[in-house]
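Minutes, project check-in
Item: structure for the 313-residue chain
Input as provided by the requester:
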Amino acid sequence: MEWGESTRSNRIDGHGVRSGGRPPDAPAEPASRNGASAASANGGNGSRRQAVILAGGRGSRLAPYTTVLPKPLLPIGDQPILDLVIRQLARSGFVDITLAVGYLAHLIEAVLQDGSQHGVSLRYRKETKPLGTVGPLASMDHLDDTFLMMNGDILTTLDYTDLYRAHVTSGNALTVATHVRTVTSEYGVLELGGGDGATLRVTGFREKPAIDHRVSMGVYVVDRRVREHIPAGQPFNLPDLVWRLLEAGERVGSYSYDGFWLDVGRFDDYAQAIERYDEIKDALLAPGGEPGASAAPEPAVGAGAGPARRPAR
């Protein structure tokens, strides 16, 4: 989409949110593996899957760029990040999209308008105060079935359709797409043994060790019942939600993906995205098609796994 291109103007629907025109239906898909109906596997609202994009943050890690542009509108190649994300979602059948906006929301609306240029319908929910990563969901009563939720600054070749189907098949309340990130220490690390007077015995030394962590990609599939666990009008973040679900005995699952993924909200990742865009742009619009990429659901935690224990703070 060109930055100055215009589409028909937004309108206000009966819920007081801005929404777009009627997009074409997404292709029908087969039933899920556990015998669920095609309507359930594809989204309960016919074939119009729902998605929520979290695009309200200030993007302070990317200052000073985000002083004049909201983070989701920062350019990748010849288009804003968020424009690319919406095109990816549309290709996966997510055509009923809600944007949770806040900081510089008017610029996001001016660029994306009603979404009709991408064959999707866009709604805008504007925060009057910061509500955290999942707090805005509490007021989204139009989310009437399982939906995908993601940050608006994610660049990935993840297959959103496969993630959605894996969630529906699993019976999870929440499924988190995860990726391995290697964190390298800036320091040499001592391995210590028992004490010897005023000192501890050194038993080993590792120079700047690298440790793998499985981290959230900022992409989730959420059952509609999860909204019952989110307090209205209060800041509420994803870690709070995970702990509340676990304490309620709900299933929370991890969907492992080892393909291309960048969190463009980090300066290093944004620089890498700009540098590698020409190399990856075709794969970005064919999710899951990256050579060597693989994805697999992992065992859920929650129901049947014993009581969850929140770490001490």
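Outcome recorded: The chain is about 20% helix and 30% strand.
No further action items on this chain.
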